[in-house]
Amino acid sequence: MTQPIPVRREHGARPRLSAPLRTALDLATRGVPVLPLRAGKLPFGNCATCAGNACGGRPTMKSAGACTCPGICHGWAAATTDTATLTSRMWAGAWRQAQAVAYHPAGAGLTVLDLDDTKAVSWARQTLPATRIVPTTRGEHWIYLGVMPSANAVRPGVDIKSAMAYARWLGPGTGTMTDLPEAVRALTVKEPSTVRPVPHVITVPAGAGQQHCRHRTPAYLDRGIAMAEQRITEAREAVHATVYRAFLAVLSTHGRCGCLTEAHTARLFAAAQAKGESARHCTDAWTNALTTLGL
To answer: What residue ranges of the chain have pLDDT lower than 50?
Structure first.
């Protein structure tokens, strides 16, 4: 169990908290997952245990996963609404160094359209429905209700921050938040390529017993894949950790007998990507599950 940050106080006085921590606690009580930012508007880096996604993508904080590393890591995934975690000894050093507060938009059910210059702002005003607006140093953040995959440079001066991303907290802004429009979702849809890509095949070693494998009953395997898809689809938080655990469950049952095909992995990847996971994160989670199981 984490211990609260020790604070000095005069007799009868309330404890003194840093300005970033006060802001973070206020946001957390409103259901917005937050994390500290160091100089340069950057999150605190991965710890040695979790560097390179070595722990399987299970971030440290309760709202994001089950990793038990002793530091604040995984950037956006360290965001939490747990005030006990925010004021724990584990976070004390980060808040002492924090220059600002960031939040995980998707964790609050939001998408931030980051407009980086006046041209991007002008385009948004002419093209998109009005919503809550937060001024930034060079442009504006337009905040919509709804979650989608994050993407950078979807057009000149425009980034999308939602799933698996963080945005700097710059104040509540003005205006009424509206639903995420299809015009914003469409910004991440790429035109189909006329060049046929080389298929990326993820192999699973076949075990010695595959000639008499009970999993070759189609209903048994299909039920397992369907359960994994449902588990991923129903995730409301910690999506990356849920995807990893679902992959791990499938591979632990079906990974040694040669039953899994590319079509099965494609179904699992599709379910994960529909929840905002990138193809790279899917591949990393699958690879880490294989490594964990020694496949």
So the answer is: 1-14, 57-66, 193-201, 203, 205-212
* 10-to-13, 14, 16, 59, 134 alpha-carbon distances in Å: 5, 8, 10, 37, 38
Give strand ranges (E) for the chain.
34-38, 42-43, 100-103, 110-115, 132-135, 140-145, 151-155, 158-161, 167-168
Tell whether the torsion through CA atoms of 246, 249, 250 and 251 is positive or negative. Answer: positive
Identify the sign of the CA torsion 269, 272, 276, 277: negative
The pTM of this model reads 0.60
Among residues 234, 243, 236, the alpha carbon closest in space to that of 273 is found at: 243
Identify the pLDDT of residue 264: 81
No. of H helices and E strands in the chain?
9, 9
pLDDT at 243: 87
Looking at residue 267, what is its pLDDT?
A: 85
